Amino acid sequence: MVKLRLKRCGRKQRAVYRIVAIDVRSRREGRDLRKVGFYDPIKNQIDLNAPAILYFLEKGAQPTERVQDILKKAEIFKELHFNQTKSNSN
Prior knowledge:
By secondary structure, the protein is an alpha+beta fold. It has 3 helices and 5 strands. It has helices at 50-58, 65-73, 76-89; strands at residues 2-11, 14-23, 34-40, 45-48, 62-63. It has a 5-stranded mixed sheet. It is globular, with a radius of gyration of 14 Å.
């Protein structure tokens, strides 16, 4: 199973995170399938690759609780719902 979760990078006391699609069995700094975003909690910056995130969500990837909060803030789930209703109407 694939999860969307945070991968820590940066230096001591100044953590930044990549949002990655990764296998559940991998550790936090393990090899990821794809980098889909960036999150800096100190500057409160979010940079997301929306098409890649939507692709993984449609394939059944589960976001962690913190990543889900970030995606809600960026309104990614509205795009996912819009794409699902669009594909169902065809």
